[in-house]
Amino acid sequence: MTTTEPTKAEVTVAKSPRALAWTRRRHSAARFWREYRTHRAGLFGLAALVVIALIAVFAPLIAGSDAQNVTDAPGKPMESPSGEFPLGTDQFGRDLLGLLVWGARISLTVGLLAAVLSVAIGTIVGITAGHFKGWYSTVIMRVTDWFLVMPTLVLAIALASVMSKSIWTIILAIGVTTWPTTARLVRAQTLAVESRPYIERAQALGGGHGHVMGRHVLPNVMPLVLAQTTLVISAAILTEATLAFLGLGDPTVVSWGGLLQDAREAGAVSAGDWWYLAPPGLAIAVVALAFTLCGRAVESVLNPRLGVSR
User: Fold this and answer.
1) CA-CA distance, 307 to 296, in Å (whole number)?
2) DSSP 3-state assignment of 95?
3) Residues near 182 by Cβ (< 8 Å), separated by ≥ 6?
4) To pair with 226 at 20 to 30 A between CA atoms, which of 89, 186, 242, 302?
5) Which residues neighbour 215 within 8 Å (Cβ) at sequence distance 6 or greater?
6) How many CA atoms lie within 13 A of 62 on its CB side?
7) SS3 213
8) CB–CB of 129/137 below 8 Å?
9) Which of 171, 78, 189, 68 is nearest to 126 (CA)?
10) Which helix (H) or strand (E) holds 46?
């Protein structure tokens, strides 16, 4: 008696729906990575972000846990770069290299969390505005237009000024002022998705508002949301640095923007102490550029019609 091996189709049928879903997700992720690897600029940005993230995670091992200590600083105030202090010292005699390493933690954390909050608000507003027609869509989009025409930085400064100085205040100030662009993009994508025939069939079969938005609209707008998130992170990091430079950041923590503000207060600009100004400024620029390169590569992979150069 001979036995025959099951065909690929038979094996696929035997799998549970959950297993099939995970298989499709793995294949999609592998396909995404194959396409992403063809973008040299995206790979450069990703490599830079991985290095900076590892530096932030292992900051206690790289710079030491007492790098932020003001009372027991290892050097003299405003020392120029040397073998002992590669980036010099600040106005308190602290090693600027150690402060730069510790600042990566705060800057990346604020940028990531503020971007997640901004994109989450924009996604919810965009999907609901695109799904519910009538007065709700009109009112919510007029509010969105109002936020769009108002200067984002001015609104963030106003919120950060009236609230207590903390990391969470900065995250909230950035998150609640930068969501309108995401909302308009998601709304346009939602309108395009809901014009497709399968949405009408889902509603005819009894699918409610939550089912349509959660099971059909949201998965189709997620690629756009992912690409938008990578772009918003760079803007959030720049906004955090700006707020900290203006003295609206948390004075109890070290961030790259806070280092620039400390350098301004110490008179580094007029004294020509470039080592106090250049490293945090370059770090902010590199991270913002890296996230932008990653965002453009993700956009090109998810929507090849954009024609983003590689």
Assistant:
1) 10
2) strand
3) 118, 119, 121, 122, 123, 126, 225, 228, 232
4) 242
5) 202, 207
6) 19
7) helix
8) yes
9) 189
10) helix 40-57
89 by DSSP, 3-state: which? strand
What is residue 298's three-state secondary structure?
A: helix
Burial class (CB in 10 A: 0-12, 13-18, 19+), 279: buried
CB 180 within 8 A of CB 147: yes
Select from 122, 253, 256, 142 the least CA-distant residue to 190.
122
DSSP string, 159-197: HHHHS-SSHHHHHHHHHTTS-HHHHHHHHHHHHHHHTSH
pLDDT recorded at residue 268: 83
In the chain, pLDDT over 70 holds for what percent of residues?
A: 92
pTM equals: 0.81
pLDDT digits (tens, 9 = 90+) for 251-275: 888 888 888 888 888 888 788 888 8
CA angle 146, 150, 152 (to 5 degrees): 120
The stretch 178-193 carries a mean pLDDT of 90
Token pair recorded at residue 39? 């973008």
